[in-house]
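[Discussion] Sanity-checking designs against the backbone

I'm trying to build intuition for which residues belong where. Below is a structure token string of 196 positions. I'd appreciate it if someone posts a full sequence so I can compare it with mine line by line.
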């Protein structure tokens, strides 16, 4: 039986999911419920791949780490499979440890844009209707995205800020015209020009 392949792309990162539909649940032939393999391809970095358990742990690690970055806590995540910590404000060290003995860990340095692209690919996977991930183990514990408390304020500002800015600019412009316009000078000019 041919396996289905689905890809999720964001700028310089692509996530490929390989698997089969669960025919016992009468799923479409294009869906994936049984994930056999996955591949995370980052431009100019080694290919990261593995089984479903590895995907769950890596997603959990990236989500937890990004939440720590957003909430201004110490951004360090360590586990038996993956370690992520900040090198500085712009560079993050990702250490992937192999479950096979005598295999050296893979160390990848990624910037903020690559980190954002990876998270975006994971988000696309989570929100995809074509992939059904059984919520077990690490998938149950994947933290939800931290929402900025300003989102409701931002919506409010997007609605009311443009009219407020335009009214203020009209008032400012008209007030400068009032100061520049002197009706006495114009009256004297008219008296000089019009003959009697």
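Best answer:
Here's mine. Compare freely.
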């Amino acid at each position: 039986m041919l396996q289905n392949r689905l890809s999720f792309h964001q700028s310089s990162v692509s996530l490929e999911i390989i698997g089969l539909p669960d025919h016992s649940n009468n799923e479409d032939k294009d869906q994936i419920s049984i994930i056999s393999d996955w591949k995370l391809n980052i431009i100019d970095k080694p290919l990261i791949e593995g089984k479903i358990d590895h995907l769950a742990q890596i997603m959990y690690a990236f989500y937890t780490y990004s939440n720590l970055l957003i909430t201004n806590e110490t951004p360090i995540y360590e586990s038996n499979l993956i370690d992520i910590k900040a090198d500085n404000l712009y560079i993050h060290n990702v250490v992937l440890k192999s479950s096979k003995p005598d295999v050296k860990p893979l160390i990848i340095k990624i910037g903020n844009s690559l980190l954002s692209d990876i998270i975006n690919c994971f988000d696309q996977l989570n929100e995809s209707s074509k992939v059904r991930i059984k919520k077990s183990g690490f998938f149950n514990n994947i933290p939800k995205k931290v929402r900025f408390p300003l989102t409701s304020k931002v919506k409010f500002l997007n609605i009311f800020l443009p009219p407020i800015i335009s009214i203020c600019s009209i008032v400012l412009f008209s007030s400068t015209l009032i100061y520049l316009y002197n009706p006495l000078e114009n009256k004297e000019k008219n008296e000089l020009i019009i003959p009697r």
